[in-house]
Specification:
mainly alpha; 82% helix; flat
Length: 222
């Protein structure tokens, strides 16, 4: 039991150090309270890895990893564009996302779909004598690595302008999403198609980001 717990914890902890989920935790910590971010990380990781452990090997049969990865990649790109909303409806947007725990939890749940840590949870639970111990180990590792990111984010968040945080967050989301989709479809579709789609989405993102920055400066000096 202890060996399964430590094995699952160490595997995921090492895999997540410097990975996108740790960076996401750092990013969210610049916007929300550390306790809320930590609670969101726990909720999202528990649901995601709990699904993996419960379904085990059947998850790969019921829902192909490529489908899960596509959903996650598209969701990250959506998060990138939605991070660049600015204007008179900003207060409404803030009210809409009033619960940071739900926001962070949703991002972590979607972000881990088809990711290596979810696959690790599936693989480890297949041969485990105590699957719930695997769940404790993997979720504990996610929380532990996120705590490091949260600590860094909470320290730098107060010193960085809001416009930079939003822009940086959007760029990270966009990079994660595009990278995930390119990795999934690299050997499955024509290279020209991948390049064209990446260029189109990239141009749309740059245009949206430019408009966001212009609107932010206009509001600042108006």
């Amino acid at each position: 039991m202890i060996r399964e717990l430590l094995g699952a914890f160490l595997l995921v902890f090492v895999a997540e150090m410097g990975d996108k989920t740790q960076i996401l935790a750092m990013m969210f910590a610049t916007k929300y309270r550390a306790t809320a971010v930590l609670a969101g990380v726990f909720m999202g990781s528990l649901l995601n890895h709990g699904l993996a452990v419960l379904l085990g090997a059947q998850l790969g049969c019921l829902i192909p990893v490529s489908v899960l990865g596509t959903i996650a990649g598209a969701a990250f790109i959506y998060f990138a564009f939605s991070s660049l909303k600015y204007g008179n409806d900003e207060k409404e947007q803030l009210r809409k996302y009033k619960s940071p725990i739900f926001t962070v939890g949703s991002a972590f749940f979607i972000g881990e779909l088809g990711d290596k840590t979810q696959l690790a949870a599936i693989t480890l639970s297949m041969d485990a004598d105590y699957p719930w111990i695997i769940l404790i180990g993997t979720v504990g590792a996610m929380v532990a690595t996120s705590m490091i990111g949260i600590w860094i984010g909470s320290k730098i968040g107060k010193k960085i302008p809001d416009i930079f945080i939003k822009t940086f967050s959007a760029v990270l989301f966009f990079m994660f999403g595009v990278t995930k989709l390119i990795t999934l479809f690299w050997n499955k579709v024509d290279l020209i198609f991948i390049v064209m789609e990446t260029v189109v989405i990239g141009v749309a993102f740059i245009w949206t980001m430019t408009k966001f920055i212009q609107a932010s400066h206009k509001n600042k000096y108006s």
